Amino acid sequence: MCTQLMSLEEQQKLADYRVCFEEESASMLNIDVIDLFDKEKLLSFLEEVQEELQAPDLMVTGSAFSKRYSYLIIASAFYSFLMFNKKLKMSPENLAILSSTSQEKWLPRLFFNDQTAYIPETKEDRKTCRDDLIKELFVDHLSPLWDNISELCKVPKPILWENTAIYLFWIFETLLKRDDLAPELRDIIQLDFDYFLYATEHSIFKEYKSHPITGFYCDMTSLGGQAVRIRKTCCLYYALSEEGKMCKGCPRRGSYQACNNLA
Questions:
Q1: Which residues are bridge partners to 88 per DSSP?
Q2: Contact between 155 and 237 (Cβ < 8 Å)
Q3: Residue 15's closest CA among 86, 95, 75?
């Protein structure tokens, strides 16, 4: 296994997922990710985010932040691994959140301090990289961060984990729908998706009461002619909208009800 910097072409592609490879001047909403694991610094940061989002309370803020942050790390990590065969260094010590460039809503960006990536050279190397990536992202990174946000913001953990799950499903399913993928690569992506969903509960997630993601995976439902996966928890997005607008897959719509039996 070797390491290599991301190419300019790869950097440009990851920029579509709000990844930034150049340092920028300080901002109130810039923060080293490792600081989010300090509860005092996390609370101060979330209070700034609450003001930026004009959220009614920290519960809504915590959920909104978890959605935006999940998008950043899930999309960048898995796109790189699946499409470039490169494992980015996703430890909290290596990442920083940069302020948004959007004038309409707060959409943070992700910066990598060490911009080298691991390149597996054999099938066994790739399996090791895959396990390392899953553990690094979900066990060592998101699990303790979601614990802190749940405690500080009183957000139920299932909401935080489903906010993560929707982007995990999205990145795999989006890639699998592409008609320009070589059949061999499509097979690899499907195998990786199946591996994550069905083979990691008793290995990587063996210390958990249950797999933090797979409980949210279900068939899609046709709504208005569009395939939508109905959420099992409400992400509270409606509380940020003046009109109370809900997500397309919100369990509050129609007769769907949020599940109350998730631990």
A1: 117
A2: no
A3: 75
Contact 91, 36 (CB under 8 A): no
Q: How distant, in Å, are the alpha carbons of 44, 60, 75, 253 from that of 56?
A: 16, 7, 28, 21
User: How far is Cα 140 from Cα 134, in angstroms, rounded to an integer?
Assistant: 9
Burial class (CB in 10 A: 0-12, 13-18, 19+), 222: exposed
Rounded Cα gap, residues 94 and 113, in angstroms: 5
Q: Are strands 109-112 and 221-223 parallel, antiparallel or unpaired?
A: unpaired
Q: Model pTM?
A: 0.93
Mean pLDDT by 10 residues, the chain (263 residues): 88 95 81 98 97 96 98 98 97 94 84 95 96 98 98 97 98 96 97 97 94 95 87 93 82 55 38
Q: What distance in Å separates the CA atoms of residue 135 and residue 122, rounded to the nearest whole number?
A: 20
CB 4 within 8 A of CB 117: yes
What single DSSP character describes residue 229?
-
Distance CA 254, CA 70 (A): 27
Beta strand segments in the chain, E: 2-5, 19-20, 31-32, 87-88, 95-98, 109-112, 116-119, 221-223, 226-228
- Nearest-angstrom CA–CA distance, 205 and 226: 33
Would residue 212 be called left, alpha or beta, if left means φ above 0 and alpha means ψ between -120 and 50 degrees? alpha
154-188 burial, b at 16+ Cβ within 10 Å, e below that, comes to ebbbbbbbbbbbbbbbebbeebeeeeebeeeeeee
Structure-token pair, residue 149: 């946000």
Q: In the numeric block, which tokens belong to residue 114? A: 């060490």
